[in-house]
């Protein structure tokens, strides 16, 4: 299992990104889009109007693009993209629409294009101890994985599956809460629970809560359009 620092490292095996069209489905606040643009790609982030408002409130990078859209109805013509990325977003698609999301991935990919799906893996003692405080995603993540393993049903072929991990701090988690939990009272309650859990793990590890790092485990499945 390989440690990575930036999500864009999950694309390292796909070669030079210069000039390639990458669609980031469920782009959130646009971090990956900006990283891709810095590598010379034409990157387009897709998300809800609410989330894109948060993305556009951050400092812009020349060349970044965002469009309102859904994974099950991507706003592009066929054979458009070189790479379609779902980074921790497929499990947010309603279960009944996950297959449609893969069909849309195949439709907008150029022949030989790549679909890259990074999904969290929930294990006790990992960053799941904190992320699970917002919402229990165990069942939807299982559904997302089952859908990916049926790639051939959607005109895609799996070429690789690998495990990666990030290191995440309590401060990082607090920043994420500010993005994904709008209710201040609920956010404060969740953060208090997260702080208590972090303090417990830190004591066991013999470090301060500020220095403790959870492993955030991810599985990356790479699919190709036949």
Topology:
Elements lengths: L1 E2 L17 E5 L5 H8 L3 E6 L1 H8 L8 E4 L12 E7 L10 H11 E12 L7 H4 L6 H11 L7 E13 L1 H11 L3 H22 L8 E12 L1
Parallel strand pairs: 1-7, 2-3, 2-5, 3-4, 5-6
Antiparallel strand pairs: 6-8, 7-8
Helix pairs in contact: 6-7
* Succession of helices and strands: EEHEHEEHEHHEHHE
Under CATH, the homologous superfamily reads: Vaccinia Virus protein VP39
The total number of structural domains is: 1
Secondary-structure-based class equals: alpha/beta
Count of strand segments:
8
Oligomer: single chain
Beta-strand percentage range: 25-35%
CATH topology: Rossmann fold
- Proportion of helical residues: 25-40%
**Mean pLDDT over all positions:** 96
Record the strand order, biggest sheet. 1-7-8-6-5-2-3-4
**Overall geometric form:** globular
Rounded to the nearest angstrom, the radius of gyration is 18 Å
Q: What does this entry look like structurally?
A:
- The protein is of the alpha/beta class and 226 residues long.
- The chain has one domain (2-122, 135-167, 216-225): Rossmann fold.
- It is 33% helix and 27% strand.
- It is built from seven helices and eight strands; from the N terminus they run ββαβαββαβααβααβ.
- Strands 1-7-8-6-5-2-3-4 form an eight-stranded mixed sheet, sandwiched between helices.
- Helix 2 links the parallel strand 3 and strand 4 (65-68).
- It is globular.
- The two termini are 28 Å apart.
């Amino acid at each position: 299992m390989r440690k990575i620092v930036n999500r864009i490292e999950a694309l390292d095996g796909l070669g030079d990104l210069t000039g390639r069209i990458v669609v980031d489905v469920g782009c959130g606040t646009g971090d990956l889009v900006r990283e891709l643009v810095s590598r010379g790609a034409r990157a387009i982030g897709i998300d809800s109007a609410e989330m894109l408002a948060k993305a556009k409130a951050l400092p812009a990078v020349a060349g970044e693009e965002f469009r309102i859209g859904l994974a099950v109805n991507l706003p592009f013509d066929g054979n458009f993209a070189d790479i379609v990325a779902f980074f921790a977003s497929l499990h947010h698609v309603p279960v009944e629409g996950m297959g449609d999301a893969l069909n849309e991935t195949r439709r907008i990919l150029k022949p030989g294009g790549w679909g890259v799906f990074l999904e969290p893996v929930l294990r006790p003692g990992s960053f799941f101890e904190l992320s699970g405080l917002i919402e229990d995603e165990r069942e939807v993540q299982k559904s997302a994985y089952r859908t990916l393993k049926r790639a051939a049903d959607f005109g895609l072929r799996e070429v690789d599956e690998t495990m990666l991990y990030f290191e995440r701090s309590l401060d990082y988690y607090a920043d994420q809460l500010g993005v994904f939990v709008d209710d201040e009272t609920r956010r404060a309650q969740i953060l208090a629970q997260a702080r208590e859990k972090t303090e417990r793990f830190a004591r066991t590890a013999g470090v301060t809560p500020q220095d403790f790092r959870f492993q955030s485990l991810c599985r990356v499945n790479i699919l190709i359009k036949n």
